[in-house]
Amino acid sequence: MKGLISAILLTASASAMAADVTPADLEKAVAQDWSTYLAPLYDHFHRNPELSAVEVNTAARMAKELRAVKGMEVTEKVGGTGVVGVLKNGPGPVILLRADMDGLPVEEKSGLANASKVRQKDRSGVEQPVMHACGHDTHITGLVATARQLAALKDKWSGTVIFVAQPAEEIVGGAKKMMADNLYQRFGKPDYAIGWHVASALPTGTIGLAEGVTYSAADTVDIVVPGIGAHGASPQSGKDPIFIASDIVQSLQGFIGREIAPLKPAVITVGAFHAGSKHNIISDKAELSVTVRADDLETRNKLIDGIKRISVQTGRKWGLPEDKLPIVTVREDERAIPNINDTELTRRLHALYAKAYGDKIFTTVTRDSMGAEDFPYLVGPGVKGVYYNVGGTPQAALDAAKAGGPPVPSHHSPLFKVDGEAAVKLGAQTMTLAVLDLAAKPGS
Ligand SMILES: [Zn+2]
Ligand SMILES: [Zn+2]
Fold first, then answer.
1. What residues bind Mn(2+), as annotated (predicted)?
2. Which of 27, 52, 183, 243 has a Cα-to-Cα distance from 122 of 20 to 30 A?
């Protein structure tokens, strides 16, 4: 009932707008919707996070929210728990808007009143604490906000908008699965694909929008180093896999320093090293879990080839027999391609937002990390894609942290905390403006 009343209010406020929707009108409409409808929805999502690929209740709620938008056709269980809403509004471009909806296996210690206390069995059946520690709750609330605005402003644009609530971003699998479930074939091939991510390192009220590569390619690699077990007091009788694997770990960093061009970003991180059972036993196996990052395919392939060569040759160097050399496995299902923002669309949106808000809306994103995203999997050939960041921390808090005050918690931290209201509002406004511009009615 509450939803119905605010939907009516929203329609009334939208239809009262002048022929052209000004950014100020839109800001007012989103702010009004926040106070009457979106705030409790965001609160609900924040309190009730779900893990990757098991976002069952979140998906059901997103389906319900999108169905409540007049004219929306909603399909559930696309590529697992994915939800797709299609809003057809006459001839014109097809625009895909994406929000990812999964939380993380992190116990929330943000101190927020609506902190999550949820525990859930993950996709392998292991119970975990769950938290929206990456801010995906702002993305899905923002997607609902955008859908409600665009429905209310239907006479201002012409085209089709595909709303995608995507599962399993944190395991880099959800977008791929939705595509494998024939997303384009079933709901239409988009001309444009747009998504945004809240960023705790960026000030509220700003966006980070850049051309070219904004997220890196990522690969998950397992290295198994066989050994020959022996007594710890007689190393000459065995082959010590801990020693050999340690040499591999060291050599991988040397490989980046000596074989990858200095101006090509590349990271190899050995995140886990498991071997052995007791002080005086030489183990028969060591296992390394590795993440690999690059900004282009050529560098990525060079890194993967290098990891294979160094692992195998290090095994040979220390005398492992030919049938017991290290084995390198690249997990194809956990692979991410780089996100490359389309130049033309990025420039068009940049001009649009500069006109709407002035240059103060833009913040510089310093890329000092090689994070990955699976949004680019939704951007097929011939589709112009842009993925941008929306500020999540008040400038004062960022300034205080810089001056030695309390640090701003990073994404995936138990302390992670963003200004959800600011992110949802600006995310929804910028996404709505993008559609109003890209699908503008001729002559408007
Ligand atoms: Zn994340
Ligand atoms: Zn995220």
1. 134, 136, 170, 197, 412
2. 183
